[in-house]
Amino acid sequence: MNNNNISDYCPNKIGRTYSIAGDLELQVNVTSNPYNIPLDQLFAMAARINKKRSFLFVSKVLGKHIPVQPYVSLLSGVSLALMLQQALHGEVAKDLLPLAIQGMTEPLQAEAAYKEIMSHRLSLPQSVAFIGFAETATAIGHAVFQTFGHNGSYIHTTREVIDGLPSIISFSEEHSHAVAHYCYALDADLLTQADLVVLVDDEITTGKTSLNIIRDMQGKFPKKAYYVLALLDWRTEKDQEQFRKLELELDISIHVISLIKGEVEVQGSSESIPRQEHARLQAANQNDSIDFIYVDQLFRHVPPAANERPYLRDSGRFGLTSEDCQQSDQVVTQAAELLKQARKGTTTLCVGTGEFMYLPMRIAAEMGEGVVYQSTTRSPIHCIDREGYAVQVGYPYPAPEDPDVTYFLYNIKEGQYDDLFLFMEREVDHAAMQPLLEILLTRGLKQIHIVMFSPQTTAWKEHATWQTGALGQ
């Protein structure tokens, strides 16, 4: 990796070249970094297995491909919430934004910073609907929404097709490996009655995804103003011109807020990079090293109640209001206390699955010291075992919920953790879990805990060793 003798603290100078892999290089020119955040604390680079976009900014704060201290990830959303409040109010509570930035970049201070900021529960001057983009920004979007104490609602888009529910918004993410987005609000009034819509993404490269959803929404839930929040904004002048054109066409205003702004220039391609296969070790003692923990009794589920494997009401996929926040906080703490008792060592990894990121992240944050968090992902990435490269090891597997969809688990090396908690929103067929469990059983873990948020079915009773009522008794 070539830093070109440029400090991360000098955002207005011509930037930095990342030699990613093969002949693939990325020139990053930062034009705005108002909080002087070192780039290396926000992201590392990897090569995507994608003809539409060959590179990937692998976030060090989102908790997706790289394990992070969970409070760091939560603070990335809180930071954007504070910047939004500043834009809407013209001011922000004294010292809160610097505190959030400091906690996000210094993990040892993250918990104290998060708790201090959340004790204030910010206010919104008008009714705001927050929308997080699947799959990577479902948690950060939820964290932005949760920072405000009232007058807000939240929903995240999804790549899943849910039978029996109409999608109130449909749009595409053109560069993605999974293009279509859907939105299943149980109450469309969340969007109808909102004065303002705030879209939350982890990164804006061209901005087409934001433009696509705004165009679809404006025909169904017209607004006068939209805000787009992202940690990174890499739009070119040409891309920004597309935003201005849509503003004129629809007679709206679109405001973009980000921690870092700049432009990128790609040279080379990822297509010539050879795939690196990782040999799997022979797993042993499967029956002794896996347990199943059910926490479904603590959380609300989406009706109909007859569905024995229901979706979670508290996930954000179907819409939440500010009034839901207090109840969510209480059950998160209860779940964390239960799971903390099951820990087998001092180093623990908590893993969310796909879009199901925020609740696992919140629970992980309260499970004690030595806990880090990340999530599985649909993103196909070249794994290269090289120092400084963002994704060194990874394994594909068919999604337990849909075997036609491939997911990936990255950056979990053998012997790295004592135990691992895998959070599953819905129970699936036992056989469908086997490919993922076989991967986990090669990681040298003392214990693997499968945490289920849907009710236990008869078919699973012989496999589950604990339920919520049994822990701590």
From TrEMBL:
One Pfam family this sequence matches: PRTase_2
Q: Which InterPro entries does the record match to this protein?
A: PRTase-like (IPR029057), PRTase_2 (IPR041688), PRTase_dom (IPR000836), TRSP_dom (IPR022537), UCP020967 (IPR011214)
The record places domain TRSP at 315-440
Q: Give every Orotate phosphoribosyltransferase-like domain span.
A: 42-263
Check the record and name the CDD domains matching this protein.
PRTases_typeI (cd06223)
Q: Which domain of life is it from?
A: Bacteria
User: Under which name does UniProt file this protein?
Assistant: Adenine/guanine phosphoribosyltransferase
